[in-house]
Amino acid sequence: MTRPQNKEFEFLGVNHLALVCKDMARTVEFYRDLLGMPLIKTIDLPGGYGQHFFFDVGNGDCIAFFWFPDAPKAAPGVAAPEYLPTRGDIRSAHGSMNHIAINVAADKFDEYYEKLKAKGIDVTIILNHDDSDIQVSEEVTEDVFVRSVYFFDPDGICLELAAWTTEFEAHDVRHAPMRADGKPAEDMLHT
Asked: Could you give the CA distance from residue 104 to residue 28 in angstroms, rounded to a whole number?
């Protein structure tokens, strides 16, 4: 199947996602030294305003961090989920960033899961997402479309390693988006 194409803009992916950390040195230790993401650009912001560092997450895409000396404290359960999936409520507020899913090859997924654990990172169980009623399978079946494992960074940012296991087709888009009042927008299903 050919993936649907954007007819308005020729987007090339995500240039960077900018997040905020409490301690840039600890962030460098986690993303560069523990996860192996190359640190490709560092900026000291003018007037002592803080720093902005960029890590290569593959395919020319970056995860970037701001460090502001007087930033407000983290707000788990509001600005980000308080718990990892399978461990509690994963909801976060409207306009928040819930988690970052980092794409990995399906044939490397199990190896990377073990590598995270060996590095002492507290990870969830592997979730094999499928279209069943409970939306997860203990085994990798033909219905599994993505495999996931979740963990927090030092600032409580929820990260996911995700491996697609199938190509999507037109029938995979079958749920009408919900409006704020909890009613489906049936007219938007196949626009």
From this structure: 21
Tell which residue, 111, 72, 76, 74, has the closest CA to residue 91.
76
The per-residue pLDDT for 191 is: 53
> DSSP code of 178?
B
The Cβ of residue 103 has, within 10 Å, a number of other Cβ atoms equal to: 14
Q: Can you say how many angstroms the Cα of residue 79 is from the centroid of all Cα atoms in its chain?
A: 14
Going along the chain from its start, the domains and CATH numbers come out as 14-73 (3.10.180.10), 99-172 (3.10.180.10)
pTM of the model: 0.88
Nearest-5° Cα angle at 122, 58 to 115: 50
Whether residue 25 is predicted with pLDDT greater than 70 in this model: the reply is: yes
C-alpha to C-alpha distance for 189 and 173, rounded to whole angstroms: 8
pLDDT tens, position by position, 29-77: 999 999 999 999 999 998 999 999 999 999 989 999 999 999 999 999 9
